[in-house]
Amino acid sequence: MSGAGAPDFFYREAQRLGYLARSAFKLLQIQKQYKLIKPGSSVLDLGCAPGAWLQVACQSLGPLKNGGSVVGIDIKKVKVPSLHCDARVQTVSADVMNMPKKQVRALSPQQKGFSVILSDMCPSVSGIPVKDAALSAELGMQALDLAVGQASSAHPAEDIHREDGQLDGSDSGPADGGVLQQGGHLVIKLLESEDVQEFSKICKPLFRKASWLRPKATKSSSREIYLICQGLKYSR
C-alpha cells in the first residue's frame, strides 16, 4: 500500500499476477539486471516470509526439468506458495542466525552449499532511524558471515563472528564454514546509513563484483537498498 493508503502499481500487479507481495518485483528486477539465478541453481532465501521471493526464485530456475532448488528459512512458519512454485521449493521454520552452518548446508543439494543466497531479512522497525539502521546492519553482517564464514573476518574494521562460536575448524567447508559456493552470488538488504559503505569495503575483496541497487518497487518512504555481490572468490 502507498503512503496515502491506496494500492500502488506494484501492489496491484502483485495481486494480478499471483505474487504474495509487491516485494516480488524487487527480486524480479535484480534477476533481470544481474541474472543471479540460473537453471540448476541452488537458492537459499533468508527471511523468506511471506513467500514472494520463493515464487520469483522458483520461476527463475525455469521448467522443472532444469533442476535446481529453493530453500526458504524464516522465524515464521511459511507455507510454500501454490502459485509460481513447484516441488523444488521447501521452507524451514527456524532462526537461521542460531542454526549451525552445518545444519544450513545440509539443506543444500548434496550438502555442497548454495549457489545463490538472498537475504531480505528486516529487523522489527522501531521508527528510530539510527537504531533501525544498526539492527539492519547487524542482520546483514550475520548473513554475510553465514555465506562466506571466516573469509569475512579478514576485514579489520568489522568483527562479525557469532557469539555461539560456529566459526571453528569442525565446521569445515567452502570459505572456512560459509554456505555459499565458490563463484556464488549474495544479495543483502540494508537500510541506508553512513555505515553501509563498510559492506562494500568488506565484500569487494571477496567477490568479483559488488554493487548497490535500489529497486523501482521500493516505496519512496523506504530506506531499503540492496548490495548485489557476484562471484565469490577464495583467497586462502
From TrEMBL:
<dbReference type="InterPro" id="IPR050082">
    <property type="entry name" value="RNA_methyltr_RlmE"/>
</dbReference>
<dbReference type="InterPro" id="IPR015507">
    <property type="entry name" value="rRNA-MeTfrase_E"/>
</dbReference>
<feature type="domain" description="Ribosomal RNA methyltransferase FtsJ">
    <location>
        <begin position="19"/>
        <end position="231"/>
    </location>
</feature>
<dbReference type="Pfam" id="PF01728">
    <property type="entry name" value="FtsJ"/>
</dbReference>
<feature type="compositionally biased region" description="Basic and acidic residues">
    <location>
        <begin position="156"/>
        <end position="165"/>
    </location>
</feature>
<feature type="region of interest" description="Disordered">
    <location>
        <begin position="154"/>
        <end position="178"/>
    </location>
</feature>
<dbReference type="InterPro" id="IPR002877">
    <property type="entry name" value="RNA_MeTrfase_FtsJ_dom"/>
</dbReference>
<keyword id="KW-0949">S-adenosyl-L-methionine</keyword>
<keyword id="KW-0808">Transferase</keyword>
<comment type="similarity">
    <text>Belongs to the class I-like SAM-binding methyltransferase superfamily. RNA methyltransferase RlmE family.</text>
</comment>
<feature type="active site" description="Proton acceptor">
    <location>
        <position position="189"/>
    </location>
</feature>
<keyword id="KW-0698">rRNA processing</keyword>
<protein>
    <recommendedName>
        <fullName>rRNA methyltransferase 2, mitochondrial</fullName>
    </recommendedName>
</protein>
<keyword id="KW-0489">Methyltransferase</keyword>
<dbReference type="GO" id="GO:0008650">
    <property type="term" value="F:rRNA (uridine-2'-O-)-methyltransferase activity"/>
</dbReference>
<dbReference type="InterPro" id="IPR029063">
    <property type="entry name" value="SAM-dependent_MTases_sf"/>
</dbReference>
